[in-house]
Design goal:
Layout lengths: L3 H27 L6 E5 L6 H17 L3 E5 L6 H8 L7 E6 H10 L11 E17 L7 H10 L5 E4 L5 H13 L4 E4 L3 H10 L4 E5 H10 L2 E6 L25 E9 L4 H16 L1 H9 L3 E2 L4 H22 L5
């Protein structure tokens, strides 16, 4: 029979272990960062996620006292790079710039997803959010969203739309639009935004639900044409481009977002330090100006706010996946 003394010994050892773990965690946090910090971008170079991560890295490098490296690990619509970070050491030195697709959509689209958007990560902060813009190639005759829909309805299954990958916000917004407009646009996935927009300009695909950062320079150059934006209100960078809602689809709204995550188990003190550095970077005038000129809204948050935001995103996109009848790739 276990004696009272034995129980006190066990409880004492447990308390000591907890105290030692807390001291070790605190020491690790105080020494952070002790080596270069990696921000993994789960897409190829040149897309919006890559450019945003590099601007954050520039700011962090000035204040963290360690090199901050952006590493591209593309594949599976952001899943490959996100999974790599989910399996990394939970010490704050390996992070991922997650997006709507990788951390809001994929769990509903892929039952074999190797990570959970929340259980496998510690949310640090949302960084930006933005609407998408529906664009077509210069050779496409449609000048308005109504003309685009009419063409798609007259040729079901023939009009294509590109995206940075299966499960991305660009892909799912296209599916939302199919449901709203009664069209059968065919999705053509790429490994990143650069390939998707290049083939749009080259005429290999006819349309794209694109983020502003990728589309705006090409719209301004006349190589592609903007038909509508997916926000509730017109966007200040394209004031003459109507919203989808005012083009005949009331209530239609779709936003993409990007944010930073660390592996689950990363010490709370490290998460708080990274959050503070993120808010500092987002508050700088040059960063805010850069993001706004690319069509983004700075959307800094606390870790708790970011977690609650993702908890709401998952069921929202699950509904889209179900209604579109999408199956794992």
């Amino acid at each position: 029979m276990t004696t009272r003394r034995t129980w006190f010994s066990i409880l004492g050892l447990a308390a000591l272990s907890t105290a030692l773990l807390g001291l070790a965690t605190g020491a690790a946090a105080q020494g952070f960062p002790s080596k270069p910090v990696r921000i993994v971008v789960p897409f190829p170079p040149g897309g919006s996620t890559d450019l945003l991560a590099r601007r954050i890295a520039e700011k962090w490098q000035q204040s963290l006292g360690q090199p901050v490296i952006v590493e591209n690990r593309p594949g599976a619509g952001g899943v490959t790079g996100s999974d790599f970070v989910a399996r990394a050491a939970p010490d704050g030195h390996t992070l991922v710039m997650g997006v709507t697709g990788s951390h809001g959509v994929s769990i509903s689209l892929n039952p074999r997803l190797p990570y959970h958007p929340l259980r496998s990560f510690e949310p640090i902060s949302r960084v930006v959010s933005a609407p998408l813009v529906i664009v077509v190639g210069a050779a496409v005759p449609a000048r308005t969203l109504a003309e685009y829909v009419a063409a798609a309805r007259s040729k079901p299954g023939e009009i294509t739309h590109s995206s940075p990958g299966v499960g991305t916000s660009m892909h799912l917004t296209g599916e939302m639009f199919n449901a709203a407009a009664g069209t059968q646009l065919v999705h053509v996935p790429y490994k990143g935004s650069a390939g998707a927009i290049n083939d749009l300009m080259g005429g290999q695909v006819q349309s794209m639900f694109s983020d502003f950062l990728v589309a705006l320079p090409q719209v301004e150059s006349g190589r592609i044409r903007a038909l509508a934006v997916t926000s509730a209100r017109r966007h200040p960078l394209m004031p003459n481009v109507p919203t989808v809602a005012e083009s005949g689809y009331p209530g239609f709204e779709a936003l993409s977002w990007q944010g930073l995550f660390a592996p689950a188990g990363t010490p709370r003190e490290v998460i708080e330090r990274l959050n503070a550095e993120t808010q500092k970077a987002l508050a700088s005038p040059d960063i805010r100006d850069f993001f706004s000129r690319q069509g983004f809204e700075v959307a800094g948050s606390t870790p708790a706010e970011f977690r609650a935001f993702i908890e709401a995103e998952i069921p929202k996109w699950a509904k889209v996946v179900k209604e579109a009848g999408l199956t794992p790739p």
